[in-house]
Amino acid sequence: MPAGIPHLNDRIALVTGASRGIGRAIALALAGAGAALAVNYRQREAEAAHVVAQIESAGGRAIAVRADVSAADEVAHMIDEVEKRLGVIDVLVNNAGTGTVCDIDALTEAEFDRTLAVNLKSAFLCTQAVLPGMRARRWGRIVNLSSAAARGGGLVGVHYNASKAGVEGLTRGYAARVARDGITVNAVAPGPIDTEMAAPLKASNVAERLPVGRLGEADEVAQAVLMVTGNAFVTGQTIAVNGGVNFI
């Protein structure tokens, strides 16, 4: 296996929101490192099945598992299904998210609550669900997807800023408490990435304002996830993948 890619043979990984975009790239990257993959989706069943097919065609193991990860009962059912079909979860990537562009004058309480539930509460629910098994085995890797908006003004809205800043706080809090159990918890914070969710950013020509002069690629985010997954001495950190839009 090439240098810099972790050896994840016999490891089970769950990636939430993995049917498309960054989540899909992360799932494929982890599978390429040897992990068996649980590909979580909420609505896009056909796209999740396609990710599974890609992994299987390359000789890997994968399943698609539907769940709204902002709902505790659905998370519990998802974890149970993954453990029955693949095994206990060693690597959790909390990628599921939402980012509806909304100015402060139009932002509603319902949209604020929904954004925090999908982007932040889901990471809490999934982490709580997998920690007992990781602690028992004294090995685990948890990676939370943050955003450049966690530490900047951002382009989506204050609801998104708040949710992603919360993700980084959650990351540091867990990291401090489970490191002695052999578990690392890190965040990866993408800037503008060329995915379906980035359509509003393309319309505003944000790429021209980045130091690198282009949007990032989903595979570049996946590379950062692989890096922290393979390093047992990096924990509680936020890895910026943002083309120089800010410096953490």
Automatic annotation (TrEMBL):
Entries under InterPro entries matching the protein: KR_dom, NAD(P)-bd_dom_sf, Sc_DH/Rdtase_CS, SDR, SDR_fam
Single Gene Ontology MF annotation: oxidoreductase activity
Keywords from the named record: Oxidoreductase
SUPFAM superfamilies (UniProt xref): NAD(P)-binding Rossmann-fold domains
GO biological process: monocarboxylic acid metabolic process
Domain Ketoreductase per the UniProt entry, residue ranges: 11-196
Family membership noted in the UniProt record: Belongs to the short-chain dehydrogenases/reductases (SDR) family.
Annotated protein name in UniProt: 3-oxoacyl-[acyl-carrier protein] reductase
